[in-house]
UniProtKB/TrEMBL annotation:
This is Peptidase M16-like protein. Keywords: Hydrolase, Metalloprotease, Protease. It comes from Sphingopyxis granuli. The keyword Oxidoreductase does not apply. Residues 64-200 form the Peptidase M16 N-terminal domain. The keyword Cell inner membrane does not apply. GO terms for molecular function: metal ion binding; metalloendopeptidase activity. It comes from the Bacteria. SUPFAM superfamilies: LuxS/MPP-like metallohydrolase. Residues 216-391, 687-863 form the Peptidase M16 C-terminal domain. PANTHER family: METALLOPROTEASE, MITOCHONDRIAL-PROCESSING PEPTIDASE SUBUNIT ALPHA. GO terms for biological process: proteolysis. InterPro entries: Metalloenz_LuxS/M16, MPP/UQCRC_Complex, Pept_M16_N, Pept_M16_Zn_BS, Peptidase_M16_C. Belongs to the peptidase M16 family.
Length: 955
């Protein structure tokens, strides 16, 4: 059964039957041979040609239908000369079919409100290829047309020489952009762990050589061999009649036929016990890392209740070990992070893997992790330890059950596809809860000891050490370390009684001084005498769920643009440093089995502590948040762990163009503003617990405080809960003035700014941007800029990717901050080869100039505004959407007004608006550009490569 907890099981071939009608009673092919309780929401069927399907009604979000077409073919089905063909075929299929012009499917779906890349997508893995379409605002006509388009694409994709050449360039760009240290490490690790099996060298992306050798006839032959109705599963979930889904599947796929019999899948092999045990991978600039794998042959199993019991117990056994490993890391030890995970990998192997990031001596880290595992297989866990981990699973399943009616159809469709791929079934959330209740009762210490022994024993053990410099002895040193008998490490958590009542009293309950409804919203504004304001929406959108966001202080505005800061330290260390009398372990114990969280974030105008809770836990959830603000603890260990973690990964910051951009782009765009510029190595090395406390203590004590409570509040006295917690705090003042701060934009220059990476010579990145605006004074312009960015992106995609294959993922983004009246920008960028940099800038300049000179057509405007409007309409059915938009609404009425007008603002965007904003902002004399080049290469060198490529292409 597909577990809701992150556990995977082996695959089995699901039985099929041949039916003359779209649906036959009892045709539950997914459950063949299984006693798993069926999820009655699904309807199953098999067409006469062998195609299987699963359909169901689901109204979340309203008006959407999610379609998935799964083909039982992936990279493991390729021959040596076909490596990458399954993935290349995925790309070709989504270009369209022989029945419509190349690329027209994308434009048709755009007119239906579909966003390319999020609503339409595809994925190729070693074992399957899946096509995805989420169709918003469904009508009988657009659903029919969409099924017709998908049928044509799957059955008869356009596999012409021109199409193959174009998509080869895109896939080669994807391969180039993903290449780098991490990919080399992953490929070498897979080659070692799965030696002797096809999985060792069957990455879905393929190789330069096999992609270069792909021709229309060879790709078509691959399609004809594997794309057959008896290898297809269609899943349709959405806000319509399942009988209509069945009718459309039968209409557009029922006459699909294939030549000959279904080919026998290739043999995925078994782990080779004679292959090398140890492998050292030297990768300069990368942090040291260890992988210890215990590998067993994959076994085909029928998914039954007993199989589900085994899966849950295996997950419990892993959780027990991971808790001990994390306990050791928190208290200081030989590794920064260590985790174990057990997985059934691609129908090829059953693997239990320990991933370790050592601190200093890798031998000590390996020994310590092996010691924890040795303890797990020699001494039973206590029942208290078992119950702690079982409580977490039980709480998760209860949460899924409470929110079952709000489960998005897209997730249900994806879960079904995943179940088919791994050979499992699905059951209802209630079925999950009921089964786990019985399974938990069987999880005794002796049973868990037996399970631990099973998942940590294997006929094949392999170890990989990734290191920036070669270690003395190399592979032999690894073998020697593995040969040392494991010494038991007892890092089990001590059993301690911790109660929320131990938190010191916050103060006398606060007094409400005003409570008013916000016009146009199902929400009330509450203000307490201490200045705390709250926006509360009591609704049944998510039964049994309450979302909390506590915004305090002034966030990025609390720091001057040129002042040193420690904003970069808050994400992990601030929460992990504890509350009052408790460190992180005690907080974990308080929250065990409950929906209580502490998630920290920094916004431009506030710091945020957010949580997803439930009514029964809300009072303690708010006590914990208020306690963090009133009684912060300052444990030193999380700060040191953060410092070491930053330093451990520091040298990878320039390993690829993407790494350089992730670290530096926001700082470049804001002219080096310290709030967004990344810390250098000296700043990281200088971090101390004292400096951390000095920076964060006044911010945790600062105001104002705004609370958002959205969700199922009908069973709780939320006013009293707020009064007892945040309303009881002493009045707070802002740390620093929050008005009038400006955000600068990078200075214009005639030639691009240059940065360098240490990765492959064929990798580069190019960006260009224009300053726009910010604030709440012009919300319609902010929305119109989103549409302008979508139009720009659509044109860039068509020219840079679809036509020329120069980039896998060009991007255009409009950033319009609301907490500042400046700092907005329109960013255009792409990863690409150095030879294509001049081409990128020429295309970007041409698009910008055309948007300035000519109004866009009505069709282009509709194709790009429609998907944005649909995304807003879908998102607006959930609480998270409104919470995000209404941040700050208790203090500035313009926030709510802007939130309420978004749909209208997008619909009101005209071609004249797009041209007006293009003329206002896309000015060459304000444009900033930047490139990331390989070390030692100049812009002139890149241009020369482009000219040479152009000459070669013209010959």
């Amino acid at each position: 059964m597909l577990l809701l907890a992150p556990v995977r099981a082996p695959a089995q071939e699901a039985a099929t039957s041949t039916l003359s009608s779209p649906q036959a009673a009892g045709d539950d092919w997914l459950y063949a041979g299984s006693d798993i309780p069926r999820d009655a929401g699904w309807r199953f069927g098999t067409l006469a040609n062998g195609l299987r399907y699963a359909v169901r009604n689901n109204g979340v979000p309203p008006g959407q239908v999610s379609i998935r077409v799964r083909m039982d073919v992936g990279s493991l089905f390729e021959t040596e000369k076909e490596r990458g063909f399954a993935h290349l075929l995925e790309h070709l299929t989504f270009r369209g079919s022989v029945h419509i012009p190349d690329g027209e499917a994308k434009r048709i779906w755009q007119r239906f409100g579909v966003s390319f890349g999020s609503d339409t997508n595809a994925q190729t893995t070693p074992t399957q290829t899946v096509y995805q379409l989420d169709l918003p605002s469904v009508t009988a006509a657009n659903l029919d047309e969409s099924m017709k388009l998908l049928s044509g694409m799957i059955r008869e994709p356009r596999i012409s020489s021109a199409a193959v050449e174009a998509e080869r360039g895109v896939v080669v760009s994807e391969l180039r952009e993903s290449d780098g240290p991490q990919k080399r490490i992953a490929d070498a690790t897979n080659a070692h762990l799965f030696a002797g099996q096809p999985l060792a060298d069957r990455s879905p992306i393929g190789t330069q050589e096999t992609l270069a050798g792909a021709r229309a006839d060879s790709v078509a032959a691959f399609h004809d061999r594997w794309y057959r109705p008896d290898r297809a599963v269609i899943v349709v979930v959405g806000d319509a009649d399942p009988a209509e889904f069945e009718r459309l599947i039968a209409r557009y796929f029922g006459d699909w036929s294939a030549d000959g019999s279904n080919p026998t899948p290739p043999d995925f092999g078994t782990p080779d016990p004679k292959a090398a045990v140890a492998r050292e991978i030297v990768e300069p600039g990368q942090p040291a890392a260890l992988t210890l794998a215990m590998i067993r042959p994959w076994k085909k199993r029928i998914d039954t209740v007993e199989n589900t019991r085994r899966l849950y117990l295996e997950y419990l056994a892993q959780a027990l070990v991971n808790r001990r490993l994390e306990n050791r890391a928190r208290s200081g030890g030989s590794y920064l992070v260590a985790t174990v995970g057990q997985e059934y990998v691609s129908r090829s192997a059953d693997v239990t893997m320990a991933q370790i990031v050592p601190l200093g001596d890798w031998k000590a880290a390996l020994a310590d992790v092996r010691g924890v595992i040795a303890d797990a297989v020699q001494t039973p866990p206590s029942q208290a330890d078992i119950d702690r981990e079982a409580n977490e699973i039980e709480a998760f399943l209860a949460k899924e059950l409470e929110n079952a009616r709000n489960e998005p159809g897209a997730r249900l469709a994806d879960d079904m596809v995943r179940a088919v791929d791994i050979g499992e079934t699905v059951t209802s959330p209630q079925g999950q809860v009921d089964m786990f209740k019985a399974i938990r009762a069987s999880a005794t210490p002796q049973v868990m000891l037996d399970i631990s022994r099973a998942i940590f024993a294997a006929p094949v053990t392999r170890v990989v050490l990734t290191t920036p410099t070669a270690v003395e002895g190399g592979d032999k040193a690894l073998l020697a370390a593995l040969a040392v008998p494991a010494q038991i490490r007892d890092d089990r958590l001590a059993v301690a009684k911790v109660d929320i009542g131990e938190l010191p009293a916050i103060g006398q309950p606060g007094t409400i001084v005003s409570a008013t409804q916000i016009p146009g919203l199902r929400a009330e504004r509450i203000e307490f005498a201490n200045g705390v304001t709250a926006l509360v929406s009591n609704n049944a959108v998510e039964p049994g769920k309450v979302r909390v966001n506590v915004r305090f202080g002034s966030g990025n505005r609390s720091v001057a643009a040129d002042a040193p800061n420690l904003l970069w330290t808050g994400d992990y260390a601030l929460v992990a440093s504890g509350i009052g009398p408790w460190g992180q372990n005690e907080i974990d114990q308080i929250t065990n089995g409950r929906q209580i969280q502490l998630n920290f974030d920094i916004d431009d105008d506030a710091f945020e502590l957010a949580a997803e809770s439930r009514p029964v836990d809300l009072a303690d959830q708010m006590k914990l948040i208020a306690g963090k603000l009133a009684f912060p603890r300052w444990d030193a260990a999380p700060v040191e762990r953060l410092r070491v973690g930053f330093l451990t990964g520091y040298d990878v910051n320039d390993a690829t163009p993407n790494a350089v951009l992730d670290r530096n782009l926001r700082g470049w765009l804001t002219a080096g503003d310290a709030r967004w510029a990344a810390p250098d190595k000296a700043q990281i090395e200088a971090l101390t617990p004292a400096a951390f406390r000095s920076f964060w203590e006044p911010r945790l004590a600062s105001g104002p405080i705004e609370v958002q409570l959205f969700g199922d509040l009908s069973s709780v006295d939320y006013r009293q809960i707020l009064a007892d917690t945040l309303g009881a705090l002493p009045p707070r003042s802002p740390l620093a003035p929050t008005e009038g701060q400006a955000v600068a934009f990078a200075k214009h220059s005639k030639t691009p700014m240059i940065a360098y990476h240490r990765g492959e010579r064929g990798q580069a990145a190019a960006m260009t941007a224009w300053p726009t605006g910010g604030g709440l004074a012009a919300p319609r312009d902010a929305r119109a800029l989103d549409v302008l960015a979508a139009i720009f992106n659509d044109r860039l995609f068509d020219r840079l990717r679809a036509e020329q294959g120069a980039s896998y993922g060009p991007v255009v983004d409009s950033h319009w901050p609301t907490a500042f009246d400046s700092g907005g920008y329109l960013l255009v960028g792409s990863l690409l080869a150095p030879k294509d940099i001049d081409r990128f800038y020429a295309i970007a300049r041409g698009i910008a100039a055309d948007l300035v000179a000519r109004p866009v057509s009505a069709d282009e405007l509709a194709r790009n505004a429609g998907p944005i409007r649909e995304q807003v309409a879908r998102a607006s059915t959930g609480n998270l959407y409104w919470m995000f938009l209404l941040e700050g609404a208790t203090r500035d009425p313009r926030v709510a007004a802007a939130a309420l007008s978004i749909g209208e603002d997008i619909s009101a965007v005209t071609a004249a608006d797009i041209q007006r904003l293009a003329r206002r902002y896309l000015k060459p004399d304000r444009q900033w550009s930047g490139v990331v080049l390989p070390q030692g290469m100049s812009l002139a060198d890149a241009s020369a490569l482009g000219r040479a490529d152009g000459r070669a292409g013209g010959q």
